[in-house]
């Protein structure tokens, strides 16, 4: 996109300014080895303060100390001060605190959650599980956080409801049991960037929290679209909100505090996108959280559809891709001859576009010219053709031109209509395909005085017309693996609804707009992105945790992955929305597939892994001893190294310069029987094209519950593909057909091949 000159100038001066600051001092996150603390110090806090005082010249500028998910502190330091600090006993590593960004209800029933059977009643709707939301804060007055039907807060909870000028601590309740804010690092870098409370002024954090665990609220909608009852995936789970500034040191403090407070699940829909694990303190903190039995759900990012666009796909985070649901929003165009055409629209009002003249002519067809300013377009509906054979259309620019014109409404022809699924729709109009346009053009060019009427605010459940695509489909923007952080484990892990999801919002957030001056406020908004998919997975994890409190994070993750659906509602392989012709989606985009909560309740077998196994994995990565310590600390030694984590998916990589060579990769896996008793499973294999896959043994016999059985899977493949990846699967099927335990297999070029 071409930036206007003024924006370029602002960006340029900002870069200069940022540069200037970093040459003076920066916020650093210092990772310390706590067992090295000298006996003289009663607490880690005194130790860190003392180190800082002796290493730095002026008053110590300590921002946070961390002690739960991560050991260390953050501070504003010059390079010299940092060098002095590095000589201290117990120093592990230091990194500059980098920027963190926001990744930007029907979905609950679309996932099969219902009050009659399955995981909702079995889990008592997630009763007593606590989900920590690390995001932009919370709008506590939202009806979604009412505590009707919630029981007393369990005594072990250590969180607080932090008071602020606009946030009375009495605003928390039995649903929203904690709210805190972390802005010290952002503020240290720029005093203008501060929070006064955990209040969400953006809307993102409120949206995410209510998707995970919002209570039931009747009769909500987004300007008439998506009307119905709002509710989260785990409507009886509790929410603790941690508002974080746009700085890693703040986010790290939020994760550390969530762990200390006693959350069971952490949901993070933020980008902290540092590819190197050892240079990513939040990855070290989520490892710490995982050690304490906490499941960390994380958004894949919205950089798709190209391969290898996922930056931080971290092995111990449950990484979530975004998919569509079976609902879309429409307007009906009724032609003067009575014929109707249904197009996509999200114009946020019931505008009266009734029987106005319809104009279809060459001059205005692109709808990008100043011709539209002419008086002759007053009270007219124009037909715009924004089909662009060379790439995506700039829908924003077309809308802006229409807003500035004299036109009353527009019918927009675009083959890209699937991608124009944004809630930004400030001009009255509807998007149709060129196939649908044939009839309209025929009428507009043959009738002496063509007219049309457009009706807005329609919600349609069913195939995603006008394309007729089945749901779920993988969203085009969802980031794709292999993960730049560590490519030997398939990421993302799973897919959940993330396209046009209705959930609670801050009334002061950017709700919607009409024209370029009228801004509308809303308590419920439709938002899209892996940010919205992630809390669906956090909610399902809460439901599973409520049913199986003894299950490890690995078991809960495995249950969801091996029961995920790789087929859509028409029983065809899930498609990828990024291709015009809708190719089959790859596990590099959707992981194991769409989460199926009711099946995850009883998965039959699980792939377990312990923090020690994760440490063994880190030890096998080609890092120095110091880099490894920066991730897993000194509580683990690297006496066992193994890249072969007991994971419920498989990825075999090759380099493009290995094309023509035959490569072999062998994986060893152990499954634990969590079914009711003795069971026998047989293997079913779907081989990736041009490969040989051998599994031994081919049957697994379990005498009783919790018994473990191991198998090996070996792939021989030629690195000669024209495609950049191939896919298959291994499924263990229990004799009676009760359990089906599926793992995707991917053969792919490595991250370096995708530039
Ligand atoms: C918080 O709200 C309670 C109950 O509405 C009120 O009594 C109290 O004065 C408020 N506290 C502050 C600091 O505003
Ligand atoms: C639902 O909300 C709309 C708009 O606020 C209101 O007009 C309508 O009466 C409500 N319906 C019910 C059943 O509460
Ligand atoms: C297109 O329609 C406008 C408005 O009616 C009219 O002024 C203009 O002359 C038309 N152009 C052509 C090429 O027909
Ligand atoms: C719309 O524009 C595309 C690309 O320029 C062209 O191929 C197509 O025929 C046009 N359709 C109509 C209805 O004008
Ligand atoms: C580790 O690094 C060495 C030397 O840089 C290289 O030869 C080796 O292939 C690397 N191993 C892996 C698993 O990346
Ligand atoms: C490494 O850790 C293992 C397991 O905790 C322990 O048995 C072993 O002795 C340790 N090795 C070294 C060299 O510290
Ligand atoms: C499979 O192998 C054959 C023969 O080597 C080759 O022609 C073909 O392109 C390969 N197919 C794929 C999908 O790589």
Task: Explain what this protein looks like in three dimensions.
The chain is of the alpha/beta class. The protein has a 7-stranded parallel β-sheet with strand order 7-10-6-11-13-14-22, sandwiched between helices. Strand 2 (62-66) and strand 3 form a beta hairpin. Helix 2 (44-55) packs across helix 3 (79-86), helix 7 runs parallel beside helix 12 and helix 8 (248-261) runs parallel beside helix 9 (281-291). The longest helix is centred in the first third of the chain and has 20 residues, at 5-24. The radius of gyration is 27 Å and the shape is globular. The structure holds 2-acetamido-2-deoxy-beta-D-glucopyranose (7 copies). One 2-acetamido-2-deoxy-beta-D-glucopyranose (NAG) binds next to loops.
Q: Please state the overall shape, judged from the principal axes of the Cα atoms.
A: globular
Poorly predicted regions: 1-23
The fraction of residues in strands falls at 25-35%
Give the strand line-up of the largest sheet.
Answer: 7-10-6-11-13-14-22
Rg calculated over all Cα atoms: 27 Å
Number of strands: 35
Derived from helix and strand composition plus strand pairing, the structural class reads: alpha/beta
Report mean pLDDT, rounded to a whole number. Answer: 89
- N- to C-terminal distance: 21 Å
Distinct compounds present: 2-acetamido-2-deoxy-beta-D-glucopyranose
Structure annotation, total helices: 17
């Amino acid at each position: 996109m071409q930036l206007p000159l003024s924006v370029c100038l602002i960006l340029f001066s900002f870069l200069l300014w940022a540069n200037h600051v970093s040459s003076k001092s920066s916020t650093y996150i210092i990772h310390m080895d706590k067992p090295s603390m000298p006996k003289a110090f009663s607490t880690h806090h005194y130790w860190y303060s003392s180190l800082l005082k002796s290493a730095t010249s002026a008053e110590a500028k300590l921002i946070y100390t961390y002690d739960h998910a991560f050991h260390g502190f953050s501070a504003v330091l010059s390079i010299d001060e940092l060098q002095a600090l590095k000589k201290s006993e117990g120093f592990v590593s230091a990194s500059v605190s980098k920027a963190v960004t926001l990744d930007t209800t029907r979905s609950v029933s679309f996932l099969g959650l219902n009050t009659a059977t399955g995981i909702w009643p079995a889990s008592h709707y997630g009763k007593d599980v606590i989900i920590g939301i690390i995001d932009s804060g919370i709008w506590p007055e939202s009806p979604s956080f009412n505590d009707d039907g919630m029981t007393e807060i369990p005594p072990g909870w250590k969180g607080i409801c932090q008071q602020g000028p606009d946030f009375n601590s009495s605003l928390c309740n039995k649903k929203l049991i904690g709210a805190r804010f972390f802005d010290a690092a952002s503020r240290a870098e720029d005093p203008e960037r501060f929070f006064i409370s955990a209040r969400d002024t953006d809307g993102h954090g409120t949206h995410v929290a209510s998707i995970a665990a919002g209570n039931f609220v009747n009769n909500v909608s987004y300007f008439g679209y998506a009307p119905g009852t709002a509710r989260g995936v785990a409507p009886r789970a509790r929410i603790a909100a941690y508002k974080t500034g746009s700085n890693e040191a703040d986010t790290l403090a939020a994760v550390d505090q969530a762990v200390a407070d006693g959350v069971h699940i952490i949901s993070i829909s933020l980008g902290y996108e540092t590819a190197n694990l050892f240079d990513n303190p939040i990855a070290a903190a989520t490892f710490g959280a995982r050690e304490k039995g906490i499941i960390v759900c994380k958004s894949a990012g919205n950089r798709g559809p190209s391969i290898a666009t996922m930056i931080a796909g971290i092995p111990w985070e449950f990484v979530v891709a975004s998919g569509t649901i079976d609902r879309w929003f429409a307007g009906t165009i009724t032609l003067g001859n009575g014929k109707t055409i249904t197009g996509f629209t999200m114009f946020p009002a019931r505008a009266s576009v009734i029987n106005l003249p319809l104009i279809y002519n060459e001059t205005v067809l692109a709808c990008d010219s100043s011709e539209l300013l002419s008086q002759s377009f007053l009270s007219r509906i124009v037909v715009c053709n924004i089909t662009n054979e060379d790439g995506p259309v700039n829908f924003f620019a077309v809308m802006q031109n229409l807003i500035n014109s004299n036109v009353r409404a527009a019918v927009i022809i675009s083959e890209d209509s699937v991608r124009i699924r944004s809630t930004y729709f400030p001009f009255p109009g509807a998007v149709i395909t060129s196939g649908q346009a044939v009839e309209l053009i025929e009428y507009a060019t043959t009738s002496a005085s063509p007219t049309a009427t457009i009706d807005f605010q329609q919600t349609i459940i069913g195939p995603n017309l006008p394309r007729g695509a089945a749901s779920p489909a993988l969203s085009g923007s969802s980031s794709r693996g292999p993960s730049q952080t560590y490519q030997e484990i398939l990421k993302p892990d799973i897919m959940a609804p993330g396209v046009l999801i209705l959930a609670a919002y801050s009334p002061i957030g950017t709700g919607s707009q009409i024209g370029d001056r009228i801004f509308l406020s809303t308590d419920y908004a439709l938002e899209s992105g892996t940010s919205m998919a992630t809390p669906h997975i956090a909610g399902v994890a809460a439901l599973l945790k409520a049913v199986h409190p003894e299950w490890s994070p690995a078991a809960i993750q495995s249950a969801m992955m091996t029961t995920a659906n790789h087929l859509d509602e028409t029983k065809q392989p899930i498609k990828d929305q990024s291709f015009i012709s809708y190719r089959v989606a790859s596990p590099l985009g959707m992981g194991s597939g769409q989460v199926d909560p009711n099946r995850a309740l009883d998965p039959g077998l699980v792939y377990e892994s312990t923090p020690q196994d994760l440490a063994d994995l880190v030890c096998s990565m080609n890092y120095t001893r110091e880099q490894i310590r920066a991730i897993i600390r000194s509580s683990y030694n690297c006496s066992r190294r193994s890249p072969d984590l007991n994971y419920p998916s498989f990825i075999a990589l090759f380099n493009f310069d290995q094309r023509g060579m035959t490569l072999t990769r062998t994986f060893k896996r152990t499954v634990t029987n969590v079914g009711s008793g003795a069971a026998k499973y047989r293997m079913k294999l779907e081989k990736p094209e041009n490969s040989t896959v051998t599994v031994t043994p081919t049957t697994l016999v379990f005498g009783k519950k919790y018994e473990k059985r191991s198998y090996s899977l070996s792939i021989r493949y030629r690195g000669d593909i024209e495609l950049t990846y191939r896919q298959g699967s291994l499924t263990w099927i229990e004799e009676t057909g009760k359990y089906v335990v599926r793992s995707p297999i991917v053969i792919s070029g490595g991250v370096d091949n995708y530039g």
